């Protein structure tokens, strides 16, 4: 983790921890870095939050000042930037978004020329340049070397065409409800599914700059669930702010999170000979029930640290076909280098069409174990997790749970907290074991 860039770009409150000056400098560095032999070609996309225009313009101004040709995609899903970089041979790409965060936050996510997350070494050099500590001679362009900005709305049409070519299907007769989170999905989700013949209804599709993710989308799907229960829909889909995550909803209003999606897609891909080595990649936060269900279906799994970046690294190293997170980031390696909410929705619809089964039927063999997660404040999270007595207490819980549950104790990435999570067959067992550890931490004053 760098000073400004974390595992998912630079993120912070607009004009407080993430500033226009930073955006200009990031643009300048990238325009110079990729433009040392010829004009750099850089793609910029954004979500619908109020500050996204400001950061888009700052990045573009910085990049053109060092000679880059900057293509503005406008409001778009994050995965469309990743795809178009590869298809149209951009040197790099930038997405302005803070994903599922509230509107007052924003983020600057960098992609390399392969449409993957930017190399951390380059991010470190950008951080040095932001802080005026750079050892490199980043020079602005003069005369005919100054760059230009090109509005590029056709890019989204290319992305939509590509999606329809990956999952070519006739959705006539299907009634689909979409929660667009007042975010990036408003740019193309409904149009893409309607073009395949579906009857599409949308909610939260009127972004005004401040309503992105507000009581809507993948983090707040309650209204989608209510409408699915009351209405006559085949499937419901909720996106996050930048549309790289998807939480689905079955016809009875039950949520289909990332674990369910990996189970449904993993089983279908295995049955059709599309699952490399019969392996699905998950993070340590996936539910124990998913692993039991995979075992029953003859599917193996790899576990990574939390973060789609780590899932992708593992998939890339071994060529695995599918991986993802409980939160709804799902990566289909044959098609994309990043999670894509719309592609995930289309894959689920394809499975429904090809099997004749509903989402509820497709997920029926997965029993999700109850889970309880408690965040406990500590003086020093790293020291706490090295405490021998605490580790012994955690081991004791793990032994008592055996194969019928698990305990996970890990530090928060951003706060002085330790996260204690237990999965077991009943809520009562979860509570018993979580509070045994939480109370131990408090009594010991860690």
Automatic annotation (TrEMBL):
It comes from the Bacteria. Binds 1 Mg(2+) ion per subunit. It catalyses: alpha-D-glucosamine 1-phosphate = D-glucosamine 6-phosphate. Gene3D superfamilies: Alpha-D-Glucose-1,6-Bisphosphate, subunit A, domain 3, Alpha-D-phosphohexomutase, C-terminal domain. Activated by phosphorylation. Residues 373-438 form the Alpha-D-phosphohexomutase C-terminal domain. GO terms for cellular component: cytosol. Mg(2+) binds at residues 99, 240, 242, 244. It is an enzyme of class 5 (isomerase). The keyword Transmembrane helix does not apply. Catalyzes the conversion of glucosamine-6-phosphate to glucosamine-1-phosphate. This is Phosphoglucosamine mutase.
């Amino acid at each position: 983790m760098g000073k400004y860039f974390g595992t998912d770009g630079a993120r912070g409150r607009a004009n407080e921890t993430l500033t226009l000056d930073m955006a200009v400098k990031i643009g300048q560095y990238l325009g110079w870095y990729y433009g040392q032999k010829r004009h750099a070609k850089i793609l910029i996309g954004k979500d619908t939050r109020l500050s996204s225009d400001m950061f888009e313009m700052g990045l573009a101004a910085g990049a053109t000042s060092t000679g880059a040709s900057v293509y503005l995609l406008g409001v778009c899903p994050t995965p469309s930037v990743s795809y178009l970089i590869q298809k149209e041979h951009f040197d790099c790409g930038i997405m302005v978004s803070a994903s599922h965060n509230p509107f007052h936050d924003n983020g600057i996510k960098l992609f390399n020329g392969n449409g993957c997350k930017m190399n951390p070494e380059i991010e470190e050099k950008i951080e040095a340049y932001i802080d005026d500590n750079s050892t490199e001679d980043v020079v602005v362009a003069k005369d005919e070397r100054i760059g230009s900005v090109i509005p590029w709305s056709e890019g989204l049409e290319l992305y939509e065409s590509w999606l329809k070519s990956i999952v070519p299907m006739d959705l006539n007769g299907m009634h689909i409800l979409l929660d667009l989170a007042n975010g990036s999905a408003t740019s193309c989700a409904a149009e893409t599914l309607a073009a395949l013949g579906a009857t599409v209804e949308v909610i939260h599709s009127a972004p005004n700059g401040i309503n992105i993710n507000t009581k809507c989308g993948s983090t707040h799907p309650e209204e989608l669930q209510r409408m699915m229960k009351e209405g006559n829909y085949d499937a419901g889909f909720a996106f996050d702010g930048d549309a790289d995550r998807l939480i689905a909803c079955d016809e009875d209003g039950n949520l289909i999170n990332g674990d369910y999606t990996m189970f449904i897609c993993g089983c279908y891909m295995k049955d059709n000979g599309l699952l490399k080595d019969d392996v699905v990649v998950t993070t340590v936060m996936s539910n124990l029930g998913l692993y039991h269900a995979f075992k029953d279906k003859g599917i193996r799994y790899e576990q990574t640290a939390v973060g789609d970046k780590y899932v992708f690294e593992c998939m890339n190293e071994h060529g695995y076909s599918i991986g993802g997170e409980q939160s709804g980031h799902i990566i289909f390696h044959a098609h994309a280098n990043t999670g894509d909410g719309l592609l995930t929705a289309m894959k689920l619809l394809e499975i429904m069409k090809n099997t004749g089964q509903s989402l509820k039927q497709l997920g029926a063999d997965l029993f999700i174990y109850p889970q309880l997660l408690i965040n406990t404040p500590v003086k020093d999270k790293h020291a706490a997790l090295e405490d021998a007595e605490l580790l012994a207490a955690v081991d004791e819980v793990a032994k008592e749970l055996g194969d019928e549950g698990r305990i996970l104790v890990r530090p928060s990435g951003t706060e002085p907290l330790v996260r204690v999570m237990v999965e077991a067959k009943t809520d009562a067992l979860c509570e018993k074991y979580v509070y045994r550890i939480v109370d131990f931490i408090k009594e010991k004053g860690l």
